């Protein structure tokens, strides 16, 4: 692949980046997709809600989700002394999937390349500067490249937009502490959620026979309680009710992996010659299980806005920004309502912080 001019450059090849590159290519937009090296092979974000299949079809992806595990709903011990089952069928929906996330991401990247998108993995942007009619970029492994529009699909840090001076608003310090264990318990196709004084637990069975177990808590609480340490993590796991019953903790764990899980958003969704999608646009609390669905939805909405930019029409980009603002406002209201359902530990810092959250505003 030689250096050249592109209509659009997409930075980040997760679900949002691949999906927007695919959608752009189908609109005839010559697109370069750039991905940075993966920081660590351990991945979370394995839940795909029932609408994901339809979103993949809208992107023209002939998916094979049968290799992944069916995800029928959530079993939660939250705000009550007995577990509550929220089955997707109760809402008139089919099942979702607990994904082999690495395989799912590879599938999206392969579909993207097969569509004709130029893809440069193990890369990244070393520089960006405005140029006549677009942007001059230094792409690792490619050199100087020109793109008329750049798309930030780089995750919760909004790394590309931040280089352009776009602020990122962070609403909390939620962190996911996660590990993989043998799935010896009874998870039965459901995500398990259990609240606790310092946050909440999550578990789901994965296609490879293991289970993902994650503790969601604030960064300072994790530090003070030493929950990043395997022994403290296991001790806290043993103190759960539903989780310890359905998935008994092992004798030991080699390592706990930490991931940012905070809620936040870019201060602007789009501007002259640039646009954000996926977590780079807005990062949502893992309670929603909507990361992949939201990424694909964003991409489908972003592609015509980007095509409009290339044609000199900014109206669709403004509509995209209004859509993002409305979505985040709804999310804030729903998030606040859900956390307020748990009253048993309202005097604890984790829950007091969520109870004090202001109501959503436009």
From TrEMBL:
InterPro entries: FAD-bd (IPR002938), FAD/NAD-bd_sf (IPR036188), Flavin-dep_Halogenase_NPB (IPR050816). It comes from the Bacteria. Residues 6-320 form the FAD-binding domain. GO terms for molecular function: FAD binding. This is FAD-binding domain-containing protein. It comes from Chromobacterium alticapitis.
């Amino acid at each position: 692949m030689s250096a050249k001019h592109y209509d659009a450059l997409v930075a980040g090849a997760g679900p949002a980046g691949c999906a927007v590159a695919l959608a752009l290519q189908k609109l005839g937009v010559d697109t370069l997709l750039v991905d940075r090296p993966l920081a660590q092979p351990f991945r979370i974000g394995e839940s795909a809600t029932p609408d994901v299949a339809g979103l993949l079809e809208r992107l023209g992806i002939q998916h094979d989700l049968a290799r992944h595990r069916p995800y029928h709903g959530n079993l939660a011990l939250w705000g009550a002394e007995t577990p509550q089952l929220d089955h997707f069928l109760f809402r008139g929906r089919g099942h979702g999937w607990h994904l082999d996330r690495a395989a799912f991401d590879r599938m999206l990247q392969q579909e993207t390349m097969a569509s004709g998108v130029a893809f440069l993995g193990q890369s990244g942007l070393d520089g960006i500067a405005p140029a006549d009619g677009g942007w001059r970029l230094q792409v690792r492994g490619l050199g100087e490249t020109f793109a008329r529009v750049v798309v930030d699909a780089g995750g919760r840090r909004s790394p590309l937009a931040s280089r352009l001076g776009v602020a990122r608003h962070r609403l909390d310090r939620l962190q996911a502490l996660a590990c993989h264990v043998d799935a010896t318990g009874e998870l039965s196709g459901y995500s398990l959620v259990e609240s606790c004084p310092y946050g909440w637990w999550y578990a789901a069975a994965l296609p490879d026979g293991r289970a993902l177990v994650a503790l969601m808590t604030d960064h300072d609480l994790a530090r003070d309680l030493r929950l990043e340490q395997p022994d403290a993590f296991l001790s806290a796991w043993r103190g759960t009710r539903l989780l310890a019953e359905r998935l008994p903790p092992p004798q030991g764990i080699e390592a706990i992996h930490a991931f940012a899980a905070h809620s936040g958003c870019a201060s602007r969704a789009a501007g002259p010659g640039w646009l954000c999608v996926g977590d780079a646009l807005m990062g949502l609390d893992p309670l929603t299980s909507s990361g992949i669905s939201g990424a694909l939805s964003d991409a489908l909405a972003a592609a015509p806005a980007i095509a409009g930019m290339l044609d000199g029409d900014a109206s669709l980009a403004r509509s995209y920004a209004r859509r993002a603002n409305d979505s985040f406002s709804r999310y804030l209201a729903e998030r606040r309502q859900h956390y307020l359902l748990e009253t048993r530990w309202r005097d604890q810092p984790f829950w007091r912080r969520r109870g004090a959250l202001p109501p959503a505003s436009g």
